[in-house]
Amino acid sequence: MRTATQHTALLTARALRSVSRVPVFMVMNLVQPMLWLLLFGALFRSVVEIPGFGSDGTYLEFITPGIVMMTAMFGAAWAGTTFVQDMERGVMDRFLASPTSRGALMVASMACQAVIALAQALVVLGVAWLCGARFDGGLGGVGLLLLGVVLLTAIFSALSNAFALLTGQQEALIGLSQMITLPLMFLSSAIMDPRLSPAWVAEVARYNPFDWAVRLGRAALDGSAPASEIWGPAALLAAATVIMAWVATRAFRARQKSV
User: What percentage of the chain exceeds 70 in pLDDT?
Assistant: First the structure.
């Protein structure tokens, strides 16, 4: 256990150093979410006046948790890029031929992406606050929202890493990102109250991990939501994280067999 923990710490530091050398990628990943936050928040501010819309605040306040989670999911979907680069350079094969813990390789990647996502989430929240959004949940609510960010990031980082190990191709990751991220976002409550959407959208959202994170974040920032609206989605996200991390770690075997 101690060795795995040490491996995780060292590999996480390695990944963060790599990110720090090219900070532009972290900034670029914020461009689209900021456009959504500022443009959608302004263009659709009257949506909250539609009868049946389940928010007492502004549309900017409604959409902010969704944009935070969108930023986390979009970034995590590219996590496997590092694995692809390591495979192309022969680094991954050396890791797999060494006593390096497979679990540490996976957890370190997830931890690195979580750190990046947390920083970006704070930027999005700060911009929303400057634009007038106010949340009754206070710092405790922000902390719970960030918990959702970490769990959502872990799920999609593991998925991206598993896909990278199985395919070894950057093009495959691009296809995966385009295929799942936007559909998952629209099939959720991120930008629209599901009670105003077709019934089938609301039904799909029940099984959508992205929507679990959005609901957790929105309930946490609300400050008056029942505990079940926070801890229910949190439990689902935690379970999905454990399952995806296990599945992704098993993908190392497929990589070893392929070489």
Answer: 97
